[in-house]
Each structure stands twice: as structure tokens, then as C-alpha cells.
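Case study.
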Amino acid sequence: MTQQQNKQQSISILVPMYNEAEAIPHFFPAIHKVMESVDVEYNIICVDDGSKDNTLELLLAQAEQDTRVQVVAFSRNFGKEAAMTAAVDYADGDAAIPIDADLQDPPELIIKMVEKWREGFDVVYAKRVSRDTDTAMKRSSAGGFYKVFNKLSQLQIPENVGDFRLMDRKVLDALRRLPEKDRFMKGLFCWPGFKNTTLEFERLERTAGDTKFNYWKLWNFALSGITSFSTMPIRFGVYLGLLVSFCAFIFGLWTIIKTVVMGVDVPGYASLMVVMLFLGGIQLFFMGLMGEYIGRIYMEVKNRPIYVVAQEVGFSSADKKAG
Ligand code: UDP
Ligand code: MG
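After joint prediction, the assembly is written out as follows.
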């Protein structure tokens, strides 16, 4: 991309919002301040994910004042991943930057992201250098998650990189072709590939409001991430089954030798009990795991839409996309 073309370049800022009324008054000035210092056209696509507070009213008020603010309102809460999917569907810029409404991702980094984009990178990751704002528990569980995910999945996701990143049009177009209903965006965002680079930043405290995620949600999120990108867990069952059968075979041989050759009788109760419980446990575990995948197949084949839009504001009819 040459410098002369920069004037026409446009960037879509993608913001999922769920009960962010407290954050909105801080968010828009911060974004406008940064974006006005970058030499691009921009729009801010806000997805109201069925908020229960007055987030939607505040967003509509913003859109009324400023044509660069566009609002997509969901009919109910579909979750952050769905909100992000909608934002990608509606994004019409030459590049897009998903960002949280709570300003935990510093908007100032956008300036450097755009510089990197103009140098020719299609994806510019923003990596958190420290997780000081997280609890020790969240830090270690997040670290563990990336390790397990990257071991099990062919697709490698960069550690400590959230949704905050810049993606070129090419990447957005590739993302739109991913039809799955189970949206693990951290993984999906990486799936198209393309030339990437990483910037580092310190993640800040939320400016206002509270986090929408608890450990149970994060655990399910992690499970969904791993099962959407890897079938290794069920394959592991095959190997474990082979290993256990092999051990049983050796044990069988040893028992025959002990009885026939050495003439020792075989006391059974305790060993039977242990083996039965052990195998029963393993079988149930892998049946559950298979169920997990079957459940996901079930959800996929239903082919329900990922989100339902109740209202669109600020879009010209040309760039309206079906939900
Ligand atoms: N969010 C959303 N739908 C939800 C939950 C969260 O759109 O069901 C949005 C939320 O408004 C915020 C972003 O996702 O803009 C990140 O949420 P949060 O700050 O609660 O997550 P954390 O930073 O604690 O991981
Ligand atoms: Mg946050």
C-alpha cells in the first residue's frame, strides 16, 4: 500500500458491548482521540449484545451525533463471540480492529498497529506483556490453557493475545467464510493465517463496570476452544485403550505362568476391584468426551443462526449484511 492511498484507507473499530453503560462515556472520547490522530477514515461498529442496562440508548445517542458510529443491536444476549462475529460481518473497512468497551486494551496502540499495517502486515497482534491486573489463579489458568491448546491443536494461537488486534480486509474475508456455530474467536481469528507481527502492551484495569466472565464461563470457553480446534482428546482414548489392553495381556501371561508353572493360586478380589473401577472410570471418561464432540456436532447440524439482529442504525443500505 502506498502513502498516496492512505487518505482513502478506512478502518472499522469493532466493539462488543454487554451492559457497558458505565464504560461508554469513557470509551468514545478515547477512541475518537486516537483515531483522529491517525490519517484514516474510520467507523465504530458497536454490537449491543442484548444489554439489560441502558447501553443501547447510549449507543443510539452516539450514533445520532456522529455518523461514524454504527450500531447493531441483538435481540438478546448471544455472548461475546457472537457479538464479535456480527461485528466482523458488518465491518466494511480496509482493516478492522476488535476492541473491548472497557478500555482494558489501550486505544493508543492502534496508532502503532496502523503503522505496522502500512508496512505490509496483514495481522498485527497485541500481546499483553504482564497480567498484573489478573489474579494469580487467572494468570496460571490462562497460561495452562495456551499450553494445552497449542499442544493439542495444529493451529497455534499466540499466548496472551486477546481479541485486540488489527486484521486486514483479506483476513476479514477469510473469517466470513468460516461457517461454524461454535465460535471460538481467539482461534478463528488466527485460522486464516497471513503475514503477522506482534506489538506488546500492558493490560490495564477496567475503566468502569465489572467483568462479565467468571471461572465457570472461562472453563467452558476453554473446553469449547479445544474441542473446536482439535480431535486429539478422543484420539488419545485410542492410545490409552491400546496401552491398557497391552498391560492386561502381560498381566494375563504372568498370571498363567504363576498358576501353571509355579503353582501359586490367584487371589482375585482386590485386584479385580481395582482394575474394574479403573477401567470403568476410563471408559466413562472417554464416553463423556465423545459425548462432548457429539453434542457439538448436534449443535452444528442444527444450523441455527449465530445471532439475531433486532436493530441496525447508521448503516447505508448498501453495506447491510444479513445476520
Ligand atoms: N461482552 C459481550 N457479551 C457478553 C459478555 C461480554 O459483548 O456476553 C463484551 C463486553 O461488553 C466487553 C468485552 O466483551 O466489551 C469483554 O468483556 P469483559 O471486559 O467482561 O471481559 P474480560 O476483560 O474480563 O475478559
Ligand atoms: Mg475487560
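Observations recorded in class. The radius of gyration is 25 Å. The first helix runs from residue 24 to 37. We will return to this complex in the next lecture.
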